[in-house]
Write a structure and sequence with these properties.
Elements: E1 2-9, E2 12-19, H1 27-38, E3 57-60, E4 63-66, E5 76-79, E6 86-88, E7 91-92, H2 95-103, H3 119-129, H4 136-139, H5 142-146, H6 153-164, H7 173-176, H8 190-194, H9 201-214
Parallel strand pairs: 1-5
Antiparallel strand pairs: 1-2, 3-4, 3-5, 6-7
């Protein structure tokens, strides 16, 4: 099968094409085969190889996927993800994801004593804890391109668990999210449709936004999507 890879080299994007026996293999296995048997200069990210670490996200035939759990059976194109700054070939800078987590103070403040959770209580936040910060939800988000201060779907997905888990000592975590402009979310659901772990980011964002409006922390942004603009 033919594999075309869009690579970032010396400040420019270039295409490399390879012939690989890769039918039925994962994209990551194909990349590994290219690097080990054909072109050792190819750069990409991979760590766990099991859909847990989230570092191997790339675009496969125009769609953002985790390379480690995406199997292919025909010719493919592989590209770096959108939005993120490219470093080399398929490797991009993830720092902007972590910076938004820091800005929203998305971390746990544990209570001095342990509080056990019942299964139904844990179920309320399990989608948030399932997030692996692969960043795919961010790469497909139109709000990021319109508002540089928007906090990213991944940030709000992780924040949901921090806000609504009763084991968190800080009961005013919603206030920490105010600078992240959650109201800039267009609720297009691109993040939910593309999430490889089914974390439903848009649904969690909606709940957070509704609660922030309810407590007077933000005003809901009216969206006309440009349909009424003249």
């Amino acid at each position: 099968m033919k594999v075309k890879v869009k690579r970032f080299k010396d400040g420019n994007f270039v295409w490399s094409e390879y012939e690989v026996d890769g039918e039925g293999r994962t994209v990551l296995e194909i990349l590994q085969r290219i690097k080990e048997e054909i072109d050792p200069t190819l750069s990409y990210r991979a760590m766990c190889r099991a859909g847990i670490c989230g570092t191997c996200a790339v675009k496969v035939n125009g769609e953002h996927k985790l390379a480690c759990n995406t199997r292919v059976y025909d010719d493919i194109t592989i590209e770096p993800v959108d939005i993120a700054t490219p470093i080399k070939d398929l490797v991009v800078d993830h720092e902007f994801i972590y910076e938004k987590l820091k800005k929203g103070k998305v971390w746990f403040d544990p209570l001095p004593t342990n509080i056990p959770l019942k299964p139904d209580e844990l179920k309320n936040t399990e989608k948030s804890w399932d997030c692996i910060l692969c960043g795919i939800c961010n790469y497909v988000c139109p709000a990021i391109q319109e508002d540089k201060n928007f906090g990213l779907p991944s940030t709000f997905t992780k924040a949901y668990g921090v806000v609504f888990d009763k084991r968190n000592a800080n009961k005013e975590k919603l206030k920490d999210l105010v600078p992240l402009n959650i109201q800039s979310c267009t609720h297009c659901k691109n993040c939910t449709f593309s999430c490889p772990k089914d974390c439903t980011p848009e649904f969690l964002i909606t709940i957070l936004e509704n609660n922030m409006v309810r407590y007077g922390l933000i005003s809901r942004k009216e969206q006309d999507f440009g349909f009424l603009g003249f």
